[in-house]
Amino acid sequence: MVVNREYEDLRGDGRIVIFLREGKSPKYYVRLKIPNSDKYKTISTKTSNRNECIRISMDLYDEYYHKVKMGGNVVSHTYKDMFNEWSKHRLNSYRPNSNDRTIEYVGLYSVDYFGKMLIDRITPKDFYEYFDWRKLNYKRKKPSDDTLNRERTSIQSLFKFSLQRGYITEPLKIPKLKTKGINRRPTFTMNEWNKIIKGMRKWVEDGRPLGKWRERYITQQYILIMSNCGVRVGEMRNLRWDDISSVQTEDGIQLVFRVNGKVGERDVVLNPSSDVYVKRLYDLRKSELDGLDPPLNEYVFLSRRTNKPYTSFKTSFNGMMNYCGVPIEKDGMNRTIYSLRHFYGTQRLKGDINPYHLSKQMGTSVEMIEKFYGYILTKDVIDSVRKSSNQTFSETKSETKYPFI
Question: At which of 120, 146, 164 does a domain end?
Fold first, then answer.
């Protein structure tokens, strides 16, 4: 052991150096230099006893040596630091000014709770305590277990990022709260759906004297498009005109959306003949621009009030349901915009679509499928979606030249 005044090199190679920091309550500190790491790690041993300091320092060296050997990092980061780095990474992966609800879910509560904790010190046990805390800390209403499980999924993304960056050495499996079962958002019967299709036409027209025609007209197209592609609400919110393209099939032109959401970018094929709803929105926007084509980088569902995408169609959707005489509540749950996604999936499965193709279409890919096949869009997907559709559509002829056809 080499002694050098205040510093003691316990191994003689500079890897474990202890020193006493003076003050009202003197404590020993240790400075670690781990092989294959270009940074020192200085830690308080929280003791004024030299022998205890040596024992703690040796244990810390072994801990960090193993951590670096497993691909980790000597420097620990707080949960808040990781949230900031992770959120910037996600925002850079999306288009500028686009909304990422995953970041919102993580940042709303978990940063307040875990913020100062070191990311590599957080354990599954901490999340049981977090869930108890969350049930007492909320802004609007007490969160259900399903809500907390959705929040858990978003937080899991942050820890996956931390693992990829070497800030933690092992995947953290956040415990999942047990619920009463799979609470699927209730969908619609075909009789209810036909009632909605018919009722929406009059609902839109009745909005004219109320100054609500545009809002209802856009909501109508939104509902029709959502029910014919199965994308998530957030994915549709950020859709722009240059995200829309077309594919030539045996039966004619079929539209394809490039969406970016929970599972990254993917191509989504619209049901046959549903391009008419997209064309209606394009024609409406073109008329508002005095005959000029909408900019390709403009959002499809654009609010003229904010010049940004509509944040929610909830109020209009509920108003439409009431007008059409279709109850919002079914089987003890409310039908929402997400019910349109469930309706799409249900109808496609009834049409005997290949489940793998449907998982790719809806972005609910199974892990092993993603691992071995990645995300692809082939003619088989287009043919399966086209052949499995049993919904009816209307056609509108137009002389407009659309950028996506």
Answer: 164
